[in-house]
Amino acid sequence: xxxxxxxxxxxxxxxxxxxxxxxxxxxxxxxxxxxxxxxxxxxxxxxxxxxxxxxxxxxxxxxxxxxxxxxxxxxxxxxxxxxxxxxxxxxxxxxxxxxxxxxxxxxxxxxxxxxxxxxxxxxxxxxxxxxxxxxxxxxxxxxxxxxxxxxxxxxxxxxxxxxxxxxxxxxxxxxxxxxxxxxxxxxxxxxxxxxxxxxxxxxxxxxxxxxxxxxxxxxxxxxxxxxxxxxxxxxxxxxxxxxxxxxxxxxxxxxxxxxxxxxxxxxxxxxxxxxxxxxxxxxxxxxxxxxxxxxxxxxxxxxxxxxxxxxxxxxxxxxxxxxxxxxxxxxxxxxxxxxxxxxxxxxxxxxxxxxxxxxxxxxxxxxxxxxxxxxxxxxxxxxxxxxxxxxxxxxxxxxxxxxxxxxxxxxx
Length: 412
Description:
Blueprint: E1 2-6, H1 16-23, E2 29-34, H2 39-46, H3 49-57, E3 59-65, H4 72-84, E4 89-94, E5 106-112, E6 115-121, H5 127-132, E7 135-143, H6 144-160, E8 165-166, H7 171-194, H8 200-212, E9 219-223, E10 228-231, E11 259-264, E12 274-277, H9 279-285, E13 297-303, E14 309-316, E15 325-328, E16 345-352, E17 355-361, H10 368-376, E18 388-392, H11 393-399
Parallel strand pairs: 2-3, 3-4, 13-17
Antiparallel strand pairs: 1-7, 2-5, 4-8, 5-6, 6-7, 9-10, 11-16, 11-18, 12-15, 13-14, 16-17
Helix pairs in contact: 2-4, 4-7
């Protein structure tokens, strides 16, 4: 048995995400049960290249709980993926009526003709659970007899739980997912009204109140001195975006002391979105591995100049060739490489050891001049050599406060 600790502040952090996509390789069937699931967490596992290869021949039964976090966006994602891998991926929603009891498991198992593996720990099927939360888990390699015993126990439990397991298109699943979405929206509205994000005590008081009050009740003010929530007659209308309802949204925040990088991007032919880096930057900043095919995954996420976050970009942390160290940047797709001597810039900020937010800066962007100025202050311009300069994010944002990346700053 191997024991691992996941901690984004720990340089040796071992992600549950990477353990799962490693465990599925070479196996032909499996199953897993998770209390909570989110859109990003689901896609990180099921849409990974390793898991997609597993699902070409293998079969996997996933059970997700509906007690709290799993919402409409998660269920829609699961329906789409179940259809995509029809016959090989099967998903059931677990719904019970037990008072004072929560569906709370977090584990997966995989097997083949010779044995298998069990992954058991504290992390849910959310991006936070898979990569950011402080979690712990074990990976137990099993022989043929041991994995057979695990599979028997799983099958017995599935049979016992048949009255609690529902297909994703059933009305009860839609109702429960909508309830969870509504609860999350209420929390977001509350947070926007009082201007806080982490006041747990006040959020708990709010949850207690909305459970007792009719849906049309509106709460618009909090008295910090006496910690009372004041009910007002006039509702306050706030804009709540779909992104706000993403349970994993707070994952993508930046510390002022975070490691950062400004990199000039070379043309590299017609596919310049595949950005080449030097070996030192590839390994020491991005935490990638040169010349070794491991299971580590680098996750990039672009932020547009208006502050909107792009989709997750999952990249294997390996070099294609011994001297070819690169990542593809989705933000550069469809853009023409600029003419002249001015090069595009990528501003990367480390969220956790192998996860990064980035902003693509083109020569015609308003902030380009300020970006070049801070780069020139460190290293003179070279016509033949790409500059990749590392900073603390505080240094960048003080010099270029107009960057959209500052919108993801963790003010706490």
